[in-house]
Amino acid sequence: MTIRVLVADDQSMVRAGFRLLLAREPDIEVVAEASSGREAIRQAARHRPTVILMDIRMPDLDGLRATREILAANNEARVLVLTTFDLDEYIYEALRAGASGFVLKDDPPEQLLAAIRTVAAGDALLSPAVTRRVISQFVRMQPPAPPPALADLTARERDVFRLIAHGLSNAEIGRELYIGEGTVKTHVTHVLQKLGLRDRVQAVVLAYQSGLVAPGSQDAPGAPGGAGW
């Protein structure tokens, strides 16, 4: 199935570069462009893209507020935030807005393509190192709020939930718990459904907010190595 992409960036040269890059990929189609946050909202409503490449700093309406409005209107959309600023404040604000991924504009092209495919598949993309650093800081600003649905998780699902929060991939969770990757995927699906979460980014935030994983905790297994999880 073709991944339909909306490119939202206030710089025309940047948009042209993304369009040129993505045009080479047989499974990706750029269906629209936007030069402002408000235009991104209009184009997203019109074209219903699979993935939105969203710049943070744009005129009229910034990318974070545009992300909130787009996802409020279409919870199935996936937003991949693009920025030149590798700053914590932008990362956790993007998470709060509901973004499924966060990449830098100067990342290698193949990394951007992988990110688009990752979030289009329903997964989240954020490096485990960034996850732990940003979420720990993000959660310290909010009181713990365990959701009632947390009690509905089985013991195994809570184990999977905790390992998701530490940034492990499905394969790494499987090795840690001595279960198959297919079984892990099933558990992840059940965790997201029971907790009413859209993706793993939301699961990470909730795991820290609920107190299931403490900021700065050292109970995580060996550090994972990939950027996508």
Task: Describe the protein.
This protein has helices spanning 12-23, 37-47, 63-73, 88-97, 109-120, 128-140, 155-165, 170-177, 181-195, 200-209, and strands spanning 3-8, 28-34, 51-55, 78-83, 101-104. Helix 7 crosses helix 9. The chain starts with a strand and ends in a 20-residue tail after the last helix. The protein is built from 10 helices and 5 strands; from the N terminus they run E-H-E-H-E-H-E-H-E-H-H-H-H-H-H. With 229 residues, the chain is of the alpha/beta class.
Key traits:
229 residues, alpha/beta, five-stranded parallel β-sheet, single chain, 12% strand, Rossmann fold, 10 helices, disordered C terminus, 2 domains, globular
Number of domains: 2
Widest sheet: strand ordering:
2-1-3-4-5
* Total strands: 5
What's the SSE pattern? Answer: EHEHEHEHEHHHHHH
User: What can be said about the biggest beta sheet?
Assistant: 5 strands, parallel
Strand content: 5-15%
Radius of gyration: 17 Å
Spans of at least 5 consecutive residues with low confidence: 222-229
Helix % is 40-55%
Shape from CA axes? globular
In short:
Helix content is 49%, strand content 12%. By secondary structure, the chain is of the alpha/beta class. Helix 1 (12-23) links the parallel strand 1 (3-8) and strand 2.
